[in-house]
Design a protein that fits this description.
The protein is built from 18 helices and twelve strands. It is an alpha+beta fold and 509 residues long.
């Protein structure tokens, strides 16, 4: 490994044959690696080579490079000796948008592997890297995991430059910055840190930069690698890094003073710091009237509580606290459970695991088949289990309502955390009743209070209490009242004078 690193740090040799031997020795005889030989201005005393990877480089750009070096220079009556300099080649012959000098073997190989072309000519002091990327990319589509009724329909794709351009189109601020990093000793994955210079605190940007630079790993294949390596509480079930495929969510986060992390080859962008309440909020809250946005946000908070607590509360009450149930309802539940051979806790665990199994099977199978499996399977298996006397009708209703409530959570990663936390609550409620339920619930609450996201309390602005930030937590107030950014932003003012709409009486005045 050290010998390879030494070769990568070597400067390019002035002799073309020596450079060819080094590069071919490192890259080997890969079938997709092409080496096109040519003569500068058609003169045999100035041979050259263009390296590029098939499928990653655009062959039409390679053709234009060769045309400029072989034909155009000769037609202009330019002597090869006049071009035997990298600066002359860049400024007089290369018409491509991005051309830069290359001095080391490592820089040249990195350019080839990234999809660019490397031009080396005998007698020229330095090689030239010409941008020739032609990687096929998926078209911009609406994110399937973050649907909305009203608002933009575009989402991120696997090309990082397409993703950064989507945010640039929304924020035409000259202070919007993208800092480039490369992570992964073998994958050499491009990573960008995005922030608005006068909104994001320098301490936050520096902390993000430090955590990314500390990553020592051979490959980054998806944003989840980085998310797990930079989060504050890696053992916590709660997400302290927000992930999204929506450019509008990233743009709004940047405008609040947050930092976004773009990773090449993935459509998911990471945003820090993040808070618990953000996972319940949806873009529709801001694109609709504030009454509508607030109402459906409350509905999602109720869905969150149902998804987390309903099975545990049902098992706890039926097993230990039957006196809390009205008599008529208690008799109905007892008649439904009369032939069930399992205790309530085991019955709930069987149904929850069966529901998770069907949901996972529906997710992994092809879409047309997966939807049929998840819906038909739930109906048929649930009905068959009730008729066979394995579960009670009430348990089927409880599990179904819990599953539907979990689908109402906008963030898929947050719903996964809920599904995990549901099981310890269920076990504690079924084994120890109200005491066990209270202990596990308050342990989860204390844990959420103790964790942080890049230095910010996870449950802020509820704890610690921040009055100004309450305007966009449980409810959404009108935009003319949200005139301040979150407290952690450098520039707190979002508006000048309050933009409250004029009433008819004020218009008459």
């Amino acid at each position: 490994m050290s010998s390879l690193q030494d070769k990568l740090n070597e400067r390019l040799e002035p002799k073309l044959q020596d450079t060819v031997a080094i590069i071919d020795g490192i890259l080997g005889n890969s079938s997709d690696l092409h080496r096109r030989e040519f003569n500068l201005c058609g003169h045999p005393d100035y041979p050259g080579i263009v390296w590029f990877l098939e499928g990653m480089a655009d062959t039409s750009i390679i053709d234009s490079i060769l045309m400029a070096l072989m034909v155009s220079a000769r037609e202009l009556n330019v002597e090869p000796a006049e071009l035997a300099n990298s600066e002359e080649l860049r400024t007089r012959m290369m018409v491509n948008a991005s051309v830069k000098n290359c001095e080391t073997i490592g820089d040249g190989i990195a350019a080839i592997l990234a999809g660019d072309s490397l031009v080396v000519i005998q007698g020229v002091d330095r090689a030239v890297i010409v941008c020739a990327k032609g990687i096929k990319e998926r078209s911009v589509e609406e994110p399937s995991s973050e649907n909305n009724v009203r608002g933009p329909r575009d989402g991120f794709n696997e090309n990082m430059r397409t993703n950064t351009a989507s945010v640039r189109r929304r924020i035409k601020d000259p202070l919007l910055r993208f800092e480039a990093l490369t992570i992964g000793t073998r994958s050499r994955t491009d990573v960008n840190i995005a922030y608005i210079r006068d909104l994001a605190k320098e301490e936050l940007v520096e902390e993000v930069r430090k955590r990314l630079e500390r990553i020592q790993i051979d490959a980054i294949l998806e944003s989840g690698y980085i998310e797990e390596l930079i989060e504050d509480s890696p053992y916590s079930p709660f997400n302290t890094v927000q992930s999204t495929e929506r450019p509008d969510k990233v743009a709004s986060s940047l405008l609040e003073g947050r930092v976004a992390i773009f990773i090449d080859n993935t459509p998911v962008v990471l945003v820090v710091p993040t808070f618990f309440w953000q996972f319940i909020q949806a873009p529709d809250d801001y694109y609709n009237n504030y009454w509508v946005g607030s109402f459906f946000r409350i509905v999602r908070y109720i869905a969150f509580l149902i998804s987390l607590l309903l099975p545990s509360v049902y098992v706890m009450i039926v097993s230990f606290h039957q006196e809390m149930i009205p008599t008529s309802l208690a008799l109905t539940i007892a008649s439904g459970r009369e032939i069930v051979p399992f205790p309530v806790l085991l019955e709930a665990l069987i149904m929850e695991l069966a529901f998770e199994l069907m949901r996972e099977a529906g997710l992994r199978m092809p879409k047309p088949i997966g939807q049929a499996v998840s819906i038909v399977g739930s109906l048929i298996i649930g009905q068959a289990a009730v008729q066979a006397g394995l579960v009670s009708p009430f348990m089927v209703i409880v599990v179904a309502i819990t599953g539907i409530a979990s689908f109402a959570i906008p963030s898929y990663s947050s719903s996964l955390a809920l599904r995990i936390c549901r099981f310890p609550l269920l076990l504690a409620s079924g084994l120890f009743g109200l005491l066990g339920f209270a202990v596990v619930f308050f342990v989860l609450l204390l844990h959420a209070l103790s964790i942080r996201s890049f230095g910010e309390p996870y449950l802020a602005p509820a704890s610690p209490y921040r009055p100004w930030d309450q305007r966009d937590m449980l409810l959404r107030v009108p935009f003319w009242m949200m005139d301040r950014r979150p407290e952690f932003a450098m520039d707190g003012r979002r508006m000048g004078d309050r933009q409250k709409p004029n009433t008819p009486k004020e218009e008459q005045k």
